Amino acid sequence: ETGVTQTPRHLVMGMTNKKSLKCEQHLGHNAMYWYKQSAKKPLELMFVYSLEERVENNSVPSRFSPECPNSSHLFLHLHTLQPEDSALYLCASSQAPAGTETGELFFGEGSRLTVL
Amino acid sequence: AQSVTQLDSQVPVFEEAPVELRCNYSSSVSVYLFWYVQYPNQGLQLLLKYLSGSTLVKGINGFEAEFNKSQTSFHLRKPSVHISDTAEYFCALKGQAGTALIFGKGTTLSVSS
């Protein structure tokens, strides 16, 4: 496998479910990111991990909980979501640590989340 | 505060026609500028970037962009588009002081025959 891989590609969950999104990067990068993509809105940066430490959390509701167990894996744990959380969740990585990189991010194909 | 404005939400063009996707930005500090492309059901892919130096930047798939500091613009151009260029295009900026990458809302390019 190469690049950034996200699973599952599609997820449907009820408001009371608990699920997780997984991201794995095979590029040897040092920083990983979660973005939320909603129709006709700018991509929203949710979380940034650099060298396995969380360095940014952009006022994301606590029903989203990230986890970065090592430099290659990033999870987004979901619980008690709302219908407005339905979106495409994109994972990305960058070679340089966050804050020093020149903006070149490598994205996965995304996980399409639908909350009923 | 920094912001990116993509002036057109949709741009329909015919195959082999030229195209320009417009992007304006606002920032009080020096910036790096980017265009990303998102094909249907895929993640974003870097098209080109301006870091410094020549204001005309060439990217993949025949695209180029010109950085205009006085007009705070970074418009994307291609002289002749193909059906396969149909995608969503995102302009983005990053402050040189290490802030996060900020994206515009995107422009949908639809190329028809």
Mean pLDDT of chain A: 89
> Termini separation of chain A (Å)?
32 Å
Number of helices of chain B: 0
Structural class determined from secondary elements of chain A = mainly beta
Any idea what the shape of chain A is? globular
| Share in helix of chain B | under 10%
Low-pLDDT windows of residues of chain B:
none
List segments of chain A where confidence is low: pLDDT < 50 over at least 5 consecutive residues: none
Secondary-structure element order of chain B, N to C: EEEEEEEEEEEE
Please give the count of helices of chain A: 0
Biggest interface pair, counts: A-B, 23 and 24 residues
**Radius of gyration of chain B, in angstroms, nearest whole number:** 13 Å
- Give the termini separation of chain B: 42 Å
Shape of chain B: globular
Kindly state the number of beta strands of chain A: 11
The H/E string of chain A reads: EEEEEEEEEEE
Share of helix of chain A, binned: under 10%
What characterizes the major β-sheet of chain A? 7 strands, mixed
Task: Summarize model confidence as the mean pLDDT of chain B.
Answer: 93
Helix vs. strand class of chain B: mainly beta
What is the β-strand count of chain B? 12
General description of the model:
- The complex is a heterodimer of chains A (116) and B (113).
- Chain A is mainly beta and 116 residues long.
- Chain A has no helices and 11 strands.
- Chain B is 0% helix and 55% strand.
- Chain B contains no helices and 12 strands.
- Chain B has strands spanning 3-6, 10-14, 19-21, 23-26, 31-38, 44-50, 56-58, 64-68, 73-78, 87-95, 102-103, 107-112.
- In chain B, the strands form 3 sheets. In chain B, strands 2, 5, 6, 10, 11 and 12 form a 6-stranded mixed sheet that branches.
- In chain B, a hairpin with a 6-residue loop joins strand 10 (87-95) and strand 11 (102-103).
- Chain B is globular.
